[in-house]
Amino acid sequence: MEATDRASHGAHETTKAALTATDGAAEGTGAGDQFDFIVVSNRLPVDRCSADETGCEDGWRRSPGGLVTALAPMMTKTDGAWVGWHGAPDETVKPFSHGGIDLVPVQLSTEDIELFYEGFSNATLWPLYHDVIAPPEFHRAWWDSYRKVNRRFADATIRHAAEGATVWVQDYQLQLVPKMLREARPDLKIGFFNHIPFPPPEIFAQLPWRRAIIDGLLGADLVGFQRSSDAGNFMRSARRFLGASVKQQQVHVRGADGEPTHIARAQAFPISIDVKQISELAKKPEVIERAQQIRRDLGNPKTILLGVDRLDYTKGIRHRLKAYEELLQDGKVTVEDATLIQVASPSRERVEQYRLLREEVEGTVGHINGTFDTMESTAVRYLHHSYPIEEMVALYLAADVMLVTALRDGMNLVAKEYVTARTNNDGALVLSEFAGAADQLKQALLMNPHDIDGLKDTIMRAVNIQPAEASRRMRAMRKQILDHDVDLWSSDFLAALAEKVIRDDS
Ligand code: G6P
User: What is the pLDDT of residue 145?
Assistant: First the structure.
């Protein structure tokens, strides 16, 4: 395996000569440019767009999300670049800059998308890392593709990293990249952050390639996780499957020749959101007016409950619908009094488990509405769309109760966005204890979504919460988030990565 890895390294799959200009791509980054700071993620922080869409510049638009906001200042300050897939299958795009960020696109073929992205990343690792809520599939051809594509990302990074550069690799799609970088470029400072949970060794054990994944991650100087339990799970797997000797969440890593190469550390860095952006939007008169309009359009019910998720089986949407349906059946809520808005943004639609989930959720919504709707009122307003952040904040302002019922979630930023948008300190957050956000938002109404009776009780507590209690809880949660925004997350991680680690060989 190692020999194959090395053979493909050097035979770059996208050489400078092969890079072709793309219509409309702004010139800027040369294919040979080198950078002192590189972020590597499966997706680049831009999407294709057409000229008439708002925010579209030269055929690209910055994708929403705190990660890019947090890293953009760092990118400009330190001569940085971002390496990632540009989202268009089979298209080669040469490096370009957009909104002041230098971007190095990595090409994915239709076959790579099927085997590496939909296959190994999202039908093997995603369910395995989320408590096997859906059964993971193990296919050798997917694994081969995962290695090949990870090598391509590593090669692009190696070409663009200046001597001694800091490289920060993001998420489960790229777990082999840290070791590939370490072998080719021992001069680099290498960080990795896993945005999703890391499973306990008893579950991780199922993965036929478990040793290679741990080995890949241990190529980093610092491996960051959302929760300290994830960091603990990772180190337990390192001990169990590689025989690593772990002391204080550190491993002394040796190269193929047995010589020590570096110390790999694991630590929790809970990610957050762009607090400033959400707070400012929540105060804009047009956003506040839009929230009122949403309420009017729904017939001004006493209570609006809200769910906002990617349509993913980890989010507990079925559990939420079940609980709500039973509350309607029991007469605890009526459609005149309460409406559930469920935004389910389309996701990974060619993966079987996601197709099945969509059928099930839409069937259930149809059943609930068919049973409980009246001419004037609807039980569930279901929206299979993505919305711009302005509309999301209007929804947060319109909702009395936010339902985050994930069965397993690395963090859940929707919970943090809702709390941040509630500048009046009202509203209630029902939050699954299986979401990473539960570690920070301890004053949420926490519950176990598998316990449908418990979930129903918690929803009713939220619906009937007294203003003083709501305000006390919301204030405490808002303080936590306002003090820990996504800028602090990235600066904490990078400061820890830059720290000199003292060797303790005792
Ligand atoms: C999660 C993952 C991200 C991923 C996102 C959207 O948040 O941690 O790495 O980008 O989902 O999923 P997608 O498959 O569309 O990139």
Answer: 98
